[in-house]
Every structure is written in structure tokens, then in C-alpha cells.
Amino acid sequence: QVQLVESGGGLVQAGGSLRLSCAASGRTFSIYVMGWFRQAPGKERELVATVNWSDDRTYYLDPVKGRFTISRDNAKNTVYLQMNSLKPDDTAVYYCYARGSPGNDYWGQGTQVTVSS
Question: pLDDT for 52-95, tens place per residue?
Fold first, then answer.
């Protein structure tokens, strides 16, 4: 099993920045990708960004490209999501996600991000 603990959400004005952190513990050696999903009220959960543990390849949802940056710290088993130029449409609960072999998915508890206009 892998446990994920998120931190860093909060309330920010449009144009501001926040950094989310997600620390993994447990069977972290099995992880090969980590990332962030988000879910706004009344909407489906959507994949925001991922980073591959082996080669650092990243993926970003189109609306966040150029504004969000995902990064990782292997020594701390932690992944970060730096969010700049935040918009009200970014308001959502953000969930940390990890996939570990053999195909197990793990989720954090979620952290609220609210962007005021």
C-alpha cells in the first residue's frame, strides 16, 4: 500500500500562486507515476498533470499549460504542483494520485483550492 498526504491548498485571488505538495509513504518503490487530478463542483474529476518517476516526462491538461508546473523530489518521495496565474476556473478540490506496479492506483484525501475573482 501507498499513502498520500497532500498540503498547500487555500484561498487566493485571481492571478496569484499556490504550491501543492504530496508526500508518499509505504510501498513507494512500486510507484512509477504521480500526479494531480481536480474536481470542481458539479463537474467530473479531470487529470491536471503527471510526472513519470523513471524519466521525468510530464503531462499537462491544456488549460493549465504554461501556468502549472509539476515536479518531484525522489529523496522525499514528494511531488509538487506549482500553480501560477491562477484563475477562478481553477477552483476545485485537488487530489494527489499515484500509480504503482502492478497497476494499483492510490489517492490522497484532497485539498481545496479556491480562486476568487
Answer: 988 999 999 999 999 999 999 989 999 999 999 999 999 999 99
Q: In the structure grid, which three cell numbers stand for residue 84, read together? A: 501560477
How high is the pLDDT of residue 101? Answer: 87
Q: Do residues 16 and 9 make contact, with C-beta atoms less than 8 angstroms apart?
A: no
Instruction: Report the chain's terminal Cα–Cα distance, integer Å.
Output: 40
Mean pLDDT, rounded, of the chain:
96
pLDDT at residue 88 in the model: 97
Letter string b/e over residues 9-31, b meaning 16 or more CB atoms within 10 A of that residue's CB: beebeeeeebebbbbbeeebebb
Nearest to 17 by CA among 67, 89, 78: 67
CA–CA gap between residue 21 and residue 4 (Å, rounded): 10
**Phi, psi angles (nearest 5°) of residue 35:** -175, -165
- DSSP assigned state of 103: T
Angle at 98 between CA 93 and CA 101, to 5 degrees: 160
